[in-house]
Amino acid sequence: MRRVAATDRRARSVSASGLVAVVVGIAACGAWLWAFLATDRVWLVAALLVVAAIAFVLVPRVDAVGAYRDAFARHRRVAVALSALAVLGVGVALYDQPYPLLMLCTVLLFIVPCIGLTIQTGYAGIVNFAGAAFFGTGAYTAAVLASRHVPHLAGIVAGGVVAALVGSLLILPMLRTRGYYAALVTIAFGILFSTFLEVNNALGGPQGLKLPGIDLVGWKFNRDVAVGGERASFYVNYVVLSLALALAAFVFARRVERSWVGLAFDAVRLDETAAAAFGIDIARAKILAFTLGNFLCGIAGAVYSMMQGFIAPNNFTFGESLILVSIVILGGLGNPLGLVPAALVIVVVPQKLQFIQEYRFLLYGVLVILVVLFRPEGLLPRRAREYFAGTLR
Amino acid sequence: MDAGVLAQYAFNGLMLGVIYAMVAVGFTLFFGVLDVIQFGHGDVVMAGAFVGLATYLGLGALGIAVPAFAVIVVACAAGFTMALAGAFIARYLVLPLRTAPAFNTLLVTLMLGSVLRELVRLFYPNGSNPQPFPRLLPAAAINLGNFTLRLDSTILLVTGLVTIFVVNLIVRRTRLGLAIRAVAQDSETARVVGIDFERVVLVTFAIGSALAGIAGIVYGLYYNEVNFDIGLLLGVIGFSAAVVGGLGSIYGAILGGFLFAALQTIGSVALPVSSAYNNVFAFAIVIMLITWKPTGLIAEPASERV
Amino acid sequence: MTFGGLTALDALDLDVAGGEILGLIGPNGSGKTTFFNVLTGLYRPRAGRVEFAGRDITGLAAQKVFRAGIARTFQRSRLCLPLTVFDNLMIGNHVRLQRHLAFNVLRRGALRREFDANVEASRALVATFNRRLATRLFDAASALDMIDRRRVEICRALVSAPRLLLLDEPSAGMTHGETRELMDDLLQVRAARAELTIVIIEHEMNVIERMTERCVVLNYGEKIAEGPFHAVAADPRVQEAYFGQATA
Amino acid sequence: MQRFLLAACTCVLGFAAAIAPVAAGAKETVKIVFIGPLTGGNAALGLGGRNSADLAVQLHNGDAKAKYAFDMVKLDDQCKPDIGVQVATKAGADNSIVAGVTHYCSAVAIATVDTYHKFGLPVIVWGAVLPAITYGNDYPEIHRVNGTMINQNEQNAKLVTSLGYKTWVIIHDTTDYGKGHDEYFTKFLTQDGGKILADFGVGADQQDFTAILTKVKELNPDVVYFGGLTPIGVRLRSQMDKLGIKSQFEGTSGIVSDSYIQALGPISEGTIAFIDGAPIEKLPGGRMFLEQYAAHKYAEPPEAYGAYAFVAANLIMDAIEKVGPDRKAVIAELAKTKNHPSIVGPVTFDDHGQNVVPIVTAYVVQDAKWVVWQDSDYAKGKRKLAGQK
After folding, report:
1. Which tens digit of pLDDT belongs to each residue from D196-228?
2. Smallest CA–CA distance from C37 into chain B, residue
3. Which ipTM did the prediction report?
4. Domain check: are D116 and D48 in the same one?
5. Cα C87 to chain centroid, rounded
6. 3+ Cβ–Cβ pairs closer than 8 Å linking D and C
């Protein structure tokens, strides 16, 4: 009895110090993010990247990290909330710099479809090389509905739904195939999709479609925000929305993973025969994962397109799908958290390399290859399923 | 349309098919030994073409202008360089990732592709523009009504088929081929019986990439033009062909290659709607085929032990 | 049941009484595993019928067969190695868990209760096998050694409280010592649930001898002998099947 | 990892040093921006444009009388609308940037007009030909020096019909560029009484056209019209030759590039194409441009639209010289542009900021050179185009 009390006390003190650790860690990341987005100075960008690299190399080797990680695991809710606040803080700190804000939104809005792909590929093992196609389906749905004066909120949701519906066209092939054969199905669909949009003039053809800025029940997103005397860029609106979306998707994916559903997904991914032999309904699991993923892609696509104000078929090509897949793999297959650094690398770094003009993609490609060779499991590899905080021991 | 035109379509289709098949065979070989997809393979083809081009210009500088001789040197140069490149790729990009999820190989090879592309674009003189590829083969042509049979195209078609046939022989008849197939069957057991796994992998990648290099030359000599960005689409099509045919099977890859060529030809001429839909058509059919035969037309031997 | 010309399983009729332990023996390729696969719906039989607890389950899908109460282990370990022991057990128990997305995502409190209950149950079950293993419930299966993996596999088959348990060579790849341990564990479990019926495929004759009241000998997919182990072992046809003409 | 990154940084810094602008005396330095495709499939034209704009800046900074020294930021839009919006925002939000020379790809140019308007950044489009870019809105910020595909195809149809050709087959890529040309050429050609036997759309990354061309061979038109860019133009022309198609080949501004001739060699002989603007070689400024371009030893040729980038950059710099580095003033000043002399002829912006007097020049390949039609042997009748009586 007494021992129990003692351990409790110890646990509490540990958790207190852990909480501090969590706060400090997140604050540090926030600061880094702010600096990275805000600056355009070559040496500063380089320095920040080096810092990040060192962190990624050293952190797994430092012994204290184990305890640190536990701290995060124990204060899951707090950590997520704080991180969201940190990102919001970065958004506020950049209030009068539209470009960094736009990049922040882009990163957040790329994370959402990647969470979708994580549910499909990382959890249920369904390869999807048509992410951009479903992203695009959402975008075009939103565009068409907006032009018909449908309320934008409805349009955005519809984007997700339509994407899921279009996805159901592929369900039969998806269920019959595995691995690279399934991959081909989606590759074929992705190419088919963008080619069709380009050739067919019904939806603007190659010249694309214009969209209005989002207007959520009177909240006009394309208006600069006037707070007191200060005028904040209208992109702040989009930061708030994208952040909310990304956060929701993240929490959702986490909860799916940390539940019996996530378990079923894993079983299907790792060994279909065994899963079947234990009564798990493989078709159900695959359809569920596939539909959820496409829904997320569609929603994000709708918001993204309205933020961009213009969409054209070559925003949604096979190449774009590969970008999404790259983010998912680079982050560490199956770990939504890894998507954040990965998205930064894939989306922002090429823009930071603008100053070397035509050489940037060469350097960028080499950079990614090296990152993967140095971290074959991705930036933040997935860890064992911890259904509820602290249950992993 | 008359017989001549049909013959013309058929011949064009075959020519296209042989190029696709050469690419697809590479994919299927790599998958066989390592269960990975080398997504940069299309750009290896492109690189092969440019190596050949550079070699030709080099020969010109040396004052050697005998086409017959030049074409052989060019082809060998491309094949050999790409073989080395292939072995290098296997050794430093693919093998290190064996333990990691298969997807990471995918990401790395994708990036490899774009790196190759950018390298050529930036460092080959005026590389962002299409480059003329020399006409090294006799251009004599026979006209049968609407059908123009050109000697050079015929030579290329035959060359392509022969190269594939040779690769097939190597894999089916030689001891090396035996090793390759052993590894493809079950790499663990192969190791146990003392096959040098890594060596086999390197050699396989060398062979597949050499084939790609030669494909690049065939491409260049057929179209008399190469561009730095032909790789991505060639890669996707080669991959599709290999998968539709059945990964791991050489015959499957060949079948897939010709099938895809046929689909594109039909798509651009026989479709009631605009020919621009030909890729929509081709890939839609691909999806249907895969749904119908989920492990490819020539299915790999299912080895699911329960 | 035939594989491209070769008949793997043929004219085998065999009935198992509830609560007994039946041994299934025979030389390699005699169709033992195939028999399991047909039973559990991984293969479809060309002819014949499978009846379980008075119900025809011939050619049912694997999922349905399992739901009917037949669980199995595999010859080669088929654990999901990256997952924890607990996760593997829950795969075995999945049909009895709340599978609805809304429940799993929204009703975390209820999920937590279900989770805790299952943790306790799993711990208890694993403990009946091996106390030490019970403390490693949240280790990755890949971290376990061969015998523990085998234990987990059997637990995974037991956790859903099936009425018929099919064990495919539980001793495969283990030392004699380990095998003995495992047998002790199995007998313990058996003692705890008298109603459980078990069919064991084995090459280890001493396992059969220890565990089974009755055993059936297969050769070329046909039943060639049936009865208590000693009787069967003495049967000349069996000896011929195992050692060929030489000893006859 | 760290070591690599350090290495990367150093080389990066190297690049930075390499492209740092030449420090220009004690003059006030003004920033302007160039945006175009510097990577990917359209990089050739993008780099040509960048070099030409850069040349304009170099020359201006070399001029001692100039009030300001200019520093040109160069951004890559990858020919992708969303990336275009990103870089446009980057430039627009940066208040130190006064004006921009922007976009070769129409889809990108049309995607970014709102952004420039939002930030009030005056830009002059140097390559995109889609009419809607200027005529689809009334934003004072948006101008364009090059003509639209409308003028080009009007002239084109007039000339070729006058040469006595009767039947056409149109092949165009399915990008906005190709489709636009297809639309307007069809319109004007039918007005001028030409007959279109067939119209094929092809993917911008398509390699093999033998199937389509076999069909063309069957139809046997007098002329094959191609709306698209050099890479496909080259493939089409050489594959026509392979299949023994004897029809005359004509193209749009997209194929008027040295690499078209270089890639095709002798079979490029006789190809007709049109660019909107005066023949550069003819204007004194034009010759100067070409000489200077050569003198500055740029790695890539200026390509078809380099001259426009050069002109756009000059217009902007002249305006700034006049009214100072202030966006609003520059917009007002550009609006006044009338008969402003330039190496592509006098520039006059209409109320949509569109240069209204683009002289369309017809070119024909003669002895491996793009020769202005009027003074070519073909016009003089010394040589005959394919199938000409």
Report:
1. 999 988 888 888 888 889 889 888 999 999 999
2. B306
3. 0.87
4. yes
5. 19
6. no
